[in-house]
Task: structure prediction
Amino acid sequence: MSNSKRSKFIAASVVMALCLCSCFMVFGNDDSEAASDATYGTISEFNLAPGFKWTYTPTYPSDLSVTTTILKQGTNTSSGTSSSIVSGTWASISGNTVTVQVPSGAAVGSVYDVILKATTSTGGITQTAYQYLRVNVTAGITASGTASDVVLGNAASVTLTASSSMGTVSWAVTSGKSLPAGLTLSGSSITGTPTSVGSNTIYLTASAKGQSTNIAIPFTVYNVIQDGSAQTLMSYGTTVTSSAVSQTGSDLGVTWAVTSGTLPSGFTLNSSTGVITGSSTVKQSVTLTLTGTSANGPTQTATKQVTIQSEPKLTTISGDSTILTYTGNSNVTKTYTSAVSGTSTLTWSLVGAPTGVTINSSTGVVTVAGSAAVTTGTTFTVKAASQYGQSITKDVTLTVAGTLDITGSTSVSTTAGTAVTSTYTATGGNGNTFSIVNSNAPSGANVSINASTGVLSLSGASPASSFTVDVKVTSADGQTDTITVTCQIMSVLVYTSTPSNGVIAYAI
Result:
């Protein structure tokens, strides 16, 4: 070879080497020392993932007409020497452009070698040059993500994981999809608070150097568990039922249990609804704490307080339905009690009572003050209310009488053996009764009076000297009045002598 031709060949080889170096800056191996082959020179390595292809058009000195062919290609099985290349068909050439297509099923970690042969006969000089290409099959892009189920109103927790041997992975919402309401994608981070209750799915596309993969990340947004309002159940032998705790949705599967206190005998708890049902006549007051726990989604708890009070049923109030009094009377008191014992504490009160009529709230004693300005026939109600919510009433009528006054004869006389009567009457008062008091009648003298009619009877078998009795009238409201009656039983008029030794008178 002449010096001129040798110089041109060297120059062409340098230019081609520089071009190859520039082509493999992106894909080349990062190792500080490139591998080499004794026959075909430095090995230019680059990484490709399964399913990727790489095209390369070598350049040559412009004064040469060069033909590029594939000398050898195939899987390299032993440290990259040409003798270890096993025949394969990943590479093809069209013109001077080489295409390397890694099959999608290629084994990660495998090595594929392609040796290019450049030939030229320009100017009658035949030249040959080789270029050794090596494909290291590396993992393609991988992407995954998880999202924790959340309770409505809480921020989502999303973890994204991706890797690629082809470069940095970028994330985007998959075309045609949108993020669940409330979420935002920024870089490789999803943040926000989802607002749609139920099943949600995040659709994302991870991309690197033209390679992409789609992932779907499902998660569920659950309703917020609801507490129940405090409630008191009062049973007097009748069945009572608490209200159910209303949840926003049925997605939680709440189970209720008594977590404080003991459910009384006669009552049951529905664990699905939190409803307590039952009855009792036992005097008791029990406060329970119910706790509801969600079965689905993030664990949530809710509480409800239920107080159960029970006692015997109140029936009637014992005591007078009429209170008697009179004008100018001093205080009148009447006691009212429940006909049923064993209940909770009773509180007594009056409904519609006139001024001057009061009741002791603890004892049930009604007092009608002597100064009370009430008229007869006035009514009011006595009420007894138990601590556990029962109440019963009794209607009471006030009867107000005028001042009691007795009238009648103050002197009654008769003859021995004959009975006489004298009638006494009373005004004012009510339910008046008559009686004889302070009598000093002698033996044999009989004096009596009809308690309801006031008819006094006086009799005696023999005469009796004058004596007195008091006729007393007593009203049901407590008034009294008396009248003193002088009684006398006289002898029967008869002749106690016969004519004898009389004087005879002659007419003159």
Notes: The longest strand covers residues 211-222. Residues 3-137 form a domain with the Immunoglobulin-like fold (CATH 2.60.40.10). The helical segments are 3-23.
